[in-house]
């Protein structure tokens, strides 16, 4: 019930007196109005903007923040008002909701900011009025799609779980060629051979030279063997590629059903069928038809070209518009062909021998091609012919803008994704700089403060770089906290350089199984290196949120050229520590250098207490914890 | 109003459309002017209303705020009235009863209920004496305001009340229920068995009925 109408409840109750004389039973007792609050003004101070309203207005919706006792938490006694540290512009709309019962969505506001405010004030977005609901839903959907896109790209581009099987690695290499050099090489090689194959098909038909009988001979006939060898080579490569993909696909059935796979099959089938079929005269006609299918190899380029994929996707998504276009064209063609046929029936030597014959004329005219092989001779025919060409222009022009706008939207979406990817490198570098700043600040604190570890000396240069910014109290408390964590886990934070140097100096170890998830870390509990090692040997995929990944990504991007797959190694420090029993076992495994991305380090050893440590120790590579600034 | 004129501007109407448009604009504006005059209703001063009704100043303020919120133009027409009243009875159809109520409130019978009508009616219902309330109820039942309640009028009223219940009731509402209820009512009220109930019969009978007297006091504290 709308809030405003609630104000009429007293009237409705009063009007109930009209029922009393006819009532057949005695009336129930009226409810005792215990809390007859005086209707007073409430002052709501939202970041300085003072809003005032009646208390009753707010209490119309008792299940929201402002309408319930929850607002008492924000009561500011000194000024006798309710203070909210939120956005006053958006608050305006929220307060209007209480007043009018309708929630509006301001178009210029960011959708996520608006959603946050609604969530804070306990208002569900579903009650947005009809006037603004569509806009709200559209914006929300767009935003969600964009975030999804981002995540997809992120997930696909960035570091894989380190313990991927060979099959998974291969599939990843196929899907994202820029993840490893091998994949890139493969990608270009297949692209090259597709081009070669298509060119060969084309050149095959070019006439070059004459036989003894003065018959034109195509290049294909002349150099039959060469072309056959070339074709064979290409088909070999395509077959191998297809089989490899089939093998690597996580869901083989789905892969076989996919469009690209069908194209692959269609591209290589003619060759095999041709091998199988004998040089029989009867079937040679069919054989020729099969050769036509070889041209489908050109569609294999769509794996290499995003633009082609976008075009295909657009056509698919505009299927209804295209269908409508086709349908209306067919209707028009039939109508005009009939008319033209009957109009030209009288004229002598008319080319319009039948209605189907007139179809050709109609199509050529409607699409404004106008070959001129069939022209109307009678006046009536000419009149209808001109009407036909005019209408053709209109009918074709109608669905085209829809298709164009669809294509434009999809294309821009992909452009945006590309742009974001390009910007990501700079962003990550900046994030990394900030984070290492934090680390350095902490290390400086330690250096200045309490400890005198030898290893810290290596970090001294790094430590001098940045100074604590604005809030020194906060910083010192934070550093103290990190220090406590170090003491708890008996491990220490180091900065990147030290870490890298210690990583590289210890031999690379092949990692059979590695990363444990943070969840396993939390289950491990307690300090102690043994728990860390045991967790390391568990095979679990990462469940780290993207936020944590950011720091790691940063480090990896810088190592983009050489990608080292490392085992969590024992660092120099831990070797000093007598408790680290498993050191020996770990070191015994042989080094392994692959063109794979750096594996994700394990999460912090101990259960992070509170939010702080959860976000800060970004990763733990055999007891080395990287700190990210808060 | 100008908005109506603009909304009549349909695109691509051609020459005929232009003529029609202008005609429509003209007639619209005439009607709008009338509506305009009606729509700009401001209630009499607060003091006058205070004198005429039994509400305090503060209560009138609260009442007016609620009234104006729902009807910014200052008057309620029958459709709005039905709308508002129906919101309180979502299960059934309150439009018939709202129609009767509207007529009861619209004391000057001009097709719309102004704030004065509204507040005068409420004053009777909430702060009036029992006699006044019964008078008001009689006025409600007497649809044609001829001073007599006939069986047909009562049946209409009864049906309207039962309509507000809707379909999902327990026990199941039957066709004859309103009629039966009317018969009971007439048996009680119609003393001289002449088929109509006059105001005196009505008031008399109600004053002797304890239940009715008690229920009249029910809504004293609504505001």
Task: Describe the structure concisely for a colleague.
Chain B: It is found in: Cell membrane; Cytoplasm; Peroxisome. Chain A is mostly helical.
Descriptive report:
Chain B: It comes from Alosa alosa (allis shad). Chain B: It is a peripheral membrane protein. Chain A is mostly helical and 630 residues long. Helix content of chain A is 57%, strand content 5%. Chain A has helices spanning 3-6, 9-15, 55-58, 88-100, 111-120, 130-157, 166-175, 181-204, 219-222, 224-248, 252-257, 259-276, 281-292, 306-317, 319-344, 355-366, 379-397, 400-448, 460-464, 472-489, 496-505, 518-524, 529-536, 546-558, 572-576, 583-587, 610-615; strands spanning 41-46, 49-54, 75-76, 81-84, 207-210, 216-218, 617-621, 624-627. Chain A has a four-stranded mixed beta sheet. In chain A, strands 5-6 form a two-stranded antiparallel sheet. In chain A, helix 8 (181-204) packs antiparallel against helix 10 (224-248) and helix 15 crosses helix 16. Chain A starts with a helix and ends with a strand. With 223 residues, chain B is mainly alpha-helical. Chain B is 65% helix and 5% strand. Chain B has twelve helices and four strands. Chain B has helices at 2-7, 14-39, 46-52, 57-70, 78-87, 95-105, 115-127, 130-141, 151-165, 177-189, 199-208, 210-216, and strands at 75-77, 112-114, 148-150, 196-198. In chain B, the strands form two sheets. In chain B, strands 1-2 form a two-stranded antiparallel sheet. A two-stranded antiparallel sheet of chain B has the order 3-4. In chain B, helix 6 packs across helix 8 and helix 6 packs across helix 9. The two termini of chain B are 37 Å apart. The relative contact order of chain B is 0.09. The chains are: A mainly alpha (630), B mainly alpha (223). The A-B interface holds A 1-2, 4-5, 7-27, 30, 33, 39, 100 and B 62-63, 65-67, 69-70, 84-85, 87-88, 101, 104, 118, 121-122, 125-126, 133-134, 136-137, 140-141, 154, 157-158, 161, 181, 184-185, 189, 202, 206, 211-212, 214-216, 218-219, 221-223.
């Amino acid at each position: 019930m709308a809030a405003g109408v609630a104000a009429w409840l007293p009237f409705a109750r009063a009007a109930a007196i009209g029922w009393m004389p006819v009532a057949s039973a005695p009336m129930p007792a009226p409810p005792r109005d215990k809390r007859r609050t005086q209707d007073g003004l409430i002052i709501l101070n939202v970041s300085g903007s003072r809003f005032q309203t009646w208390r009753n207005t707010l209490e119309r919706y008792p299940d929201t923040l402002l309408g319930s006792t929850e607002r008492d938490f924000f009561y500011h006694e000194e000024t006798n008002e309710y203070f909210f540290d939120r956005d006053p512009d958006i608050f305006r709309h929220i307060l209007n909701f209480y007043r009018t019962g309708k929630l509006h969505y301001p178009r210029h506001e960011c959708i996520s900011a608006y959603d946050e405010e609604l969530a804070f004030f306990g208002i569900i977005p579903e009650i947005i009025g009809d006037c603004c609901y569509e806009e709200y839903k559209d914006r929300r959907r767009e935003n969600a799609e964009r975030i999804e896109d981002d995540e997809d790209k992120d997930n696909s581009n960035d570091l894989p779980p380190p313990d991927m099987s060979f099959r998974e690695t291969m599939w990843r290499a196929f899907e994202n060629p820029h993840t490893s050099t091998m994949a890139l090489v493969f990608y270009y090689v297949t692209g090259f051979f597709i081009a070669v194959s298509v060119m060969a098909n084309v050149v095959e038909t070019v006439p070059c030279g004459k036989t003894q009988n003065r018959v034109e001979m195509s290049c294909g006939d002349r150099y039959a063997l060469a072309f056959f060898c070339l074709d064979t080579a290409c088909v070999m490569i395509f077959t191998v590629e297809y089989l490899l993909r089939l093998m690597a696909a996580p869901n083989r059935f789905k892969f076989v059903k996919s469009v690209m796979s069908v194209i692959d099959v269609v591209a290589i089938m003619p060759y095999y069928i041709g091998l199988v079929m004998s040089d029989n005269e009867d079937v040679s006609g069919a054989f020729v038809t099969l050769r036509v299918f070889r041209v489908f190899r050109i569609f294999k380029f769509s794996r290499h070209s995003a633009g082609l994929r976008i075009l295909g996707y657009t056509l698919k998504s505009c299927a209804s518009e295209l269908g409508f276009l086709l349908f209306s064209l067919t209707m028009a063609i039939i109508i005009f062909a009939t008319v033209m046929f009957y109009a030209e029936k009288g004229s002598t030597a008319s080319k319009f021998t039948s209605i189907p014959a007139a179809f050709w004329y109609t199509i050529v005219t409607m699409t404004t091609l106008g070959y001129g092989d069939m022209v109307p001779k009678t006046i009536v025919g000419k009149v209808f012919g001109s009407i036909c060409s005019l209408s053709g222009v209109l009918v074709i022009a109608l669905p085209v803008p829809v298709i164009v706008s669809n294509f434009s939207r999809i294309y821009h979406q992909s452009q945006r994704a590309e742009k974001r990817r390009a910007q990501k490198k700079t962003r990550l570098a900046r994030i990394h700089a900030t984070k290492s700043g934090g680390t350095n600040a902490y290390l400086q604190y330690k250096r200045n403060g309490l400890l005198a570890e030898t290893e810290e000396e290596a970090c001294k240069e790094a430590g001098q770089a940045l100074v604590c910014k604005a809030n020194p109290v906060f910083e010192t408390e934070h550093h103290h906290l990190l220090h406590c964590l170090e003491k708890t886990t008996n491990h220490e934070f180091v900065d990147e350089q030290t870490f890298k140097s210690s990583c590289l100096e210890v031999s690379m170890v092949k990692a059979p199984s590695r990363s444990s998830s943070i969840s396993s870390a939390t289950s491990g509990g307690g300090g102690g290196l043994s728990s860390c090692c045991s967790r390391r040997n568990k095979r679990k995929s990462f469940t780290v949120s993207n936020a944590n990944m950011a720091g790691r990504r940063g480090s990896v991007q810088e190592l983009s050229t050489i990608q080292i797959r490392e085992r969590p190694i024992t660092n120099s420090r831990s070797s000093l520590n007598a408790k680290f029993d498993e050191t020996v076992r770990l070191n015994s495994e042989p080094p392994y250098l692959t063109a794979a991305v750096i594996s994700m380090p394990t999460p912090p050893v101990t259960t992070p207490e509170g939010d702080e440590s959860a976000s800060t120790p970004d990763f733990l590579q055999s007891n080395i914890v990287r700190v990210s600034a808060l | 109003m100008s908005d109506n004129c603009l909304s009549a501007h349909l695109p691509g109407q051609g020459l005929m459309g232009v003529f029609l448009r202008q005609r429509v604009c003209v007639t619209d504006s005439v009607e709008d002017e009338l509506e305009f005059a009606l729509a700009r209703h401001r209630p009499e001063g607060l003091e006058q209303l205070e004198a005429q009704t039994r509400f305090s100043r503060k209560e009138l303020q609260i009442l007016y705020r609620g009234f104006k919120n729902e009807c910014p133009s200052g008057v309620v027409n029958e459709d709005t009235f039905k709308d508002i009243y129906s919101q309180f009875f979502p299960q059934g159809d309150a439009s018939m009863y709202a129609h009767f109520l509207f007529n009861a409130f619209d004391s000057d019978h001009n097709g719309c209920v102004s704030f004065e009508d509204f507040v005068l009616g409420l004053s009777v219902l909430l702060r009036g004496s029992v006699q006044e309330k019964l008078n008001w109820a009689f006025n409600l039942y007497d649809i044609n305001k001829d001073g007599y309640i006939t069986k047909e009028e009562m049946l209409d009223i009864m049906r309207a009340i039962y309509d507000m219940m809707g379909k999902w009731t327990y026990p199941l509402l039957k066709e004859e229920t309103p009629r039966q209820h009317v018969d009971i009512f007439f048996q009680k009220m119609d003393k001289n068995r002449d088929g109509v109930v006059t105001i005196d019969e009505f008031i008399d009978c109600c004053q002797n009925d304890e239940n009715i007297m008690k229920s009249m006091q029910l809504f004293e504290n609504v505001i």
